[in-house]
Design brief:
The complex is a heterodimer of chains A (236) and B (407).
Chain A lengths: L1 E12 L2 E13 L4 E5 L6 H8 L7 E6 L2 E2 L5 H11 E4 L11 H12 L3 H14 L15 H13 L5 E5 L7 H16 L3 E6 L2 H4 L4 E6 L2 E6 L2 H10 L2
Parallel strand pairs in A: 3-8, 3-9, 6-7, 7-8
Antiparallel strand pairs in A: 1-2, 1-4, 4-5, 9-10
Chain B lengths: L2 H14 L1 H38 L4 E6 L19 H9 L6 E15 L4 E9 L2 H5 L4 E4 L4 H5 L4 E4 L1 H8 L9 E4 L2 E9 L13 E5 H9 L6 E6 L5 H15 L10 E5 H44 L1 H9 L4 H37 L8 H27 L3 H6 L2
Parallel strand pairs in B: 3-8, 5-7
Antiparallel strand pairs in B: 1-9, 1-10, 2-3, 2-6, 2-9, 4-7, 5-8, 6-7
Helix pairs in contact in B: 1-11, 2-9, 2-11, 2-12, 9-11, 9-12, 11-12
The chains are: A alpha/beta (236), B alpha+beta (407).
C-alpha cells in the first residue's frame, strides 16, 4: 500500500541546509493502523506531509497504492490527494458558515461527482459517524468532537487508500477524544488503512503498530506495547 | 467540477461581508457611472448643436467682416467694418453671381430695451425682408419687416418670443404696443415663432428692425455685421462661395484671396467646428472618468488581495482536498468579476439616471448610447479579470502545507 525507500527531505534556507528526514524506509500494508510518534522537531510532520502528498521528498521514492508520487507536479499531487488520501487535521479545517453536508461534499466536488450523488454519499458517511441529525449544521453550531466527526466523514467520502490523521484529538476534550478514537478503531476493523501522527502515547496505544521518529530517523518500528509505555516516559 | 457551482458559491461568499462588498464595488460604480453619464451627455449636446445648426439650413452661407484666422469660431466677429450694404446689393444684382438665391444683409448689436415698466438686454438685428426667407422665419402674430419699412426707415420692430416673455409675459400678444430702443419708440408689428436654442445664439432672444433704421437711426453706422446668403441649392455651395469671394475681393480692390477682409463660412463648417469642440470635451471628460475607473480597479485588486490573505487556510484546505490550480484561480477570479460586473451594472443605471436628470435641466434631448452601455459592461468585466488575475494567481500558487499552517 505504502512504500517509502530511502526518503530524505532537506530544507534549504539561504546557505543553511536543514535535514528533516534522512533515509527513511518502511512499508505500510492494507488494513494497518499505524501511529507515527515523535517529539516536536523530530521530523514527524515532514513525514506526514510526504505521506499525504502535500510535499515531495528531496531524495528517495514514495509509492502510494501502486503509484510513484515522488516527482509529480502540483495538479497531479492534488489529484492523488483527492483520490487516495483522506485527511483528518488537528484543527478540523472545516469551511466556516458551510453545512456539514457541504463540507463533506467538498472533495467530491473536486472529483467531479454529480451533485445528487455527492449528497447521498455525504449523508451516508455523516450517518456513519453519528451525525445524521446534524446534516445542515454549520461548524460554529457543532462541538469540537462533532466537528472532527464531520472531518472524518469528509476523509471517508472518496473511499481513499489511506486515512491520514494529524493529531486528530489534539483540540478535543478527552471524553470526545475517546469517541473519535473508537471511530478510528471501527474504521480499521472495517478494513481501512489508518496512519495517525501524534505525540500522546495513550492515543498512540490505539494503533497496532507504532513508528517512532527522532532527528529525522526511525528509532523504533514495532508493536511492543511495553516499549510504548517506556517511550512514553521519555516523551510525555 | 461544475463551474456554475463555483459562481453560486462566489455570490454567497460575497454576501457574507456586505459592507465590504459594497465599498469594494463603489469605485467601479462611480467610474462606470461617470463614463456613461459623460458620454451620454456629450452625445446629447452634440446632437442638440447639430440639429440647431442644421435647422438653419444646409444651403446657408454666412459672410462676416474681418480676415479669416484659425478656425471658424472667432471672437468678436464684426469688429472690422469692411462689409457694406452696397456689397450686399452687388451680390444680389451682379450677373456674375448665379448660384445665390437670396441675400440678407444684417446689422446686429446688443442693447437694453424697455417698455417703461420692464426692460431686457437683447440683440437688435437690423434686417431686410430677405431675412424672413433666408432664415425661414414664421410669425405667431402680425407681419415681418417689409421693403417699404426699409426704404422709409420706419420705427417698427418684430420681437422674438423670449423678448415678448421678458417684457410682456409669456404668450401675450404685444402687436400694436410700443417698445423703447435707445430712447426711441418702436411700434411692435410682429412676433416670431419659437425656434428654441441654446449654445451659440438663442434664436428667440432677438428684436428685428429695418436695417436702415438700425444703421441710421439707432447706431449711426454704415457697415454690416454679417450677410446671410441662401444658395440656389446644396450642390452649388462651393460655386456660390467662390463667386461671392471673387466679387467681394474685386469690390474691395484686393488681388490675393489671402488678404481677404471678410470670411465666408457654411453651416457645414460650423457643424464641423462644433462637433470637434464637443467631441474634444467628451473625450477629455471620459478620460478623467476612465482614471476613476482605474482607481476603482485598483480598489478591487486591493480587496481581493486582502481576501486571499484572509482565506489562506481555506485555500490550503481546498488544495489539500484536491482542488487544482485553475479551480482556485477561477474561484477568486469569478469573485472579482462579479464584484466589478455588479459595480458596472449599478454604475450604468446610475449614469443613465444622472444623464437623464442633467439632460432635463440643461434642456438637451436625452440619448443613451448603446456603445456606452456595451463599453461599460465590457470594461467592468475586463477590470475584474485584469485586477483579479494577480490575487487569484497568488491564491492558486499557495503551497497547501504553508497555507494550512497559516494563522
Amino acid at each position: 500500500m505504502i512504500q517509502l525507500s530511502d526518503v530524505s527531505k532537506i530544507y534549504k534556507n539561504d546557505s543553511i541546509e536543514t535535514i528533516a528526514l534522512s533515509n527513511i524506509t518502511f512499508e505500510i500494508n492494507r488494513g494497518e493502523f499505524v501511529a507515527i510518534m515523535g517529539p516536536s522537531g523530530s521530523g514527524k510532520s515532514t513525514l506526514m506531509h510526504i505521506l499525504g502528498a502535500l510535499d515531495l521528498p528531496s531524495a528517495g521514492t514514495y509509492i502510494l497504492d501502486g503509484e510513484n508520487v515522488s516527482h509529480l507536479g502540483d495538479d497531479e499531487l492534488a489529484d492523488i490527494r483527492n483520490r487516495k488520501i483522506g485527511f483528518v487535521f488537528q484543527a478540523f479545517n472545516l469551511l466556516p458558515r458551510t453545512s456539514a453536508l457541504k463540507n463533506v461534499s467538498l472533495p467530491m466536488v473536486y472529483a467531479g461527482i454529480p451533485k445528487t450523488e455527492r449528497f447521498v454519499r455525504a449523508q451516508k458517511y455523516l450517518t456513519m459517524v453519528g451525525l445524521e441529525n446534524r446534516l445542515l449544521h454549520t461548524p460554529s453550531q457543532l462541538s469540537g468532537g462533532q466537528q472532527q466527526r464531520v472531518a472524518i466523514a469528509r476523509a471517508l467520502c472518496m473511499n481513499p487508500a489511506i486515512i491520514l490523521a494529524d493529531e486528530p484529538t489534539g483540540n478535543i476534550a478527552s471524553v470526545q477524544a475517546d469517541e473519535i478514537m473508537s471511530i478510528f478503531q471501527n474504521l480499521n476493523q472495517q478494513g481501512h488503512t489508518i496512519i495517525m501522527i501524534t505525540h500522546e502515547p495513550d492515543i498512540a496505544e490505539h494503533a497496532k503498530r507504532i513508528i517512532n521518529v527522532r532527528d529525522g530517523k526511525i528509532t523504533n518500528d514495532g508493536v511492543d506495547h511495553k516499549q510504548k509505555k517506556l517511550i512514553s516516559k521519555f516523551f510525555p | 467540477m461544475e463551474y456554475s457551482e463555483i459562481v453560486i458559491e462566489a455570490v454567497s461568499t460575497l454576501t457574507v461581508n456586505k459592507l465590504r462588498t459594497f465599498l469594494a464595488t463603489l469605485g467601479i460604480v462611480i467610474g462606470i457611472g461617470s463614463v456613461i453619464a459623460l458620454i451620454s451627455l456629450g452625445q446629447s449636446s452634440q446632437k442638440a448643436v447639430q440639429t440647431q445648426i442644421q435647422s438653419l439650413g444646409s444651403n446657408m452661407l454666412t459672410i462676416i467682416p474681418g480676415a479669416q484666422n484659425t478656425g471658424v469660431v472667432r471672437g468678436a466677429a464684426g469688429g472690422a467694418t469692411t462689409l457694406t450694404f452696397d456689397d450686399a446689393q452687388a451680390l444680389k444684382t451682379s450677373t456674375k453671381i448665379t448660384a445665390v438665391k437670396n441675400v440678407s444683409p444684417e446689422f446686429s448689436r446688443r442693447i437694453q430695451i424697455t417698455t417703461g415698466k420692464n426692460n431686457t438686454n437683447t440683440q437688435i438685428l437690423g434686417v431686410t425682408p430677405a431675412y424672413e426667407e433666408v432664415r425661414k422665419i414664421t410669425l405667431t402674430y402680425g407681419t415681418f419687416i417689409s421693403q417699404k419699412d426699409v426704404e422709409s426707415l420706419t420705427k417698427v420692430a418684430v420681437l422674438g418670443p423670449q423678448v415678448v416673455a421678458d417684457l410682456f409675459g409669456q404668450d401675450s400678444n404685444p402687436v400694436g404696443k410700443m417698445v423703447r430702443i435707445n430712447s426711441q419708440s418702436f411700434k411692435i408689428i410682429g412676433v416670431t415663432v419659437s425656434k428654441g436654442g441654446t449654445g451659440f445664439q438663442n434664436q428667440d432672444d432677438l428684436v428685428f428692425v429695418p436695417i436702415s433704421t438700425a444703421q441710421k437711426q439707432l447706431f449711426g453706422a454704415t457697415n454690416l455685421t454679417s450677410i446671410s446668403i441662401e444658395a440656389q441649392n446644396e450642390n452649388v455651395m462651393t460655386e456660390a462661395q467662390d463667386q461671392i469671394g471673387y466679387l467681394l475681393l474685386a469690390r474691395h480692390k484686393l488681388n490675393d484671396p489671402s488678404q481677404a477682409d471678410f470670411t465666408i463660412f457654411s453651416q457645414n463648417d460650423l457643424l464641423g467646428a462644433a462637433s470637434q469642440v464637443t467631441g474634444t470635451f467628451t473625450a477629455l471628460l471620459s478620460g478623467i472618468a476612465a482614471i476613476s475607473l482605474l482607481v476603482g480597479g485598483i480598489g478591487i485588486m486591493n480587496i481581493m488581495l486582502v481576501t486571499v490573505t484572509e482565506r489562506t487556510r481555506e485555500i490550503g484546505l481546498r488544495k489539500a482536498l484536491g482542488a487544482k490550480k485553475k479551480i482556485i484561480i477561477f474561484q477568486f477570479l469569478i469573485e472579482s468579476i462579479i464584484l466589478t460586473f455588479a459595480g458596472g451594472l449599478i454604475g450604468m443605471i446610475l449614469g443613465i439616471v444622472i444623464s437623464l436628470i442633467i439632460a432635463h435641466f440643461i434642456n438637451v434631448p436625452f440619448t443613451v448610447s448603446i456603445n456606452a452601455v456595451v463599453l461599460a459592461i465590457g470594461v467592468s468585466g475586463a477590470i475584474g479579470i485584469l485586477f483579479g488575475w494577480y490575487p487569484a494567481r497568488k491564491a492558486s500558487n499557495l503551497q497547501p502545507i504553508e497555507a494550512l499552517r497559516y494563522e
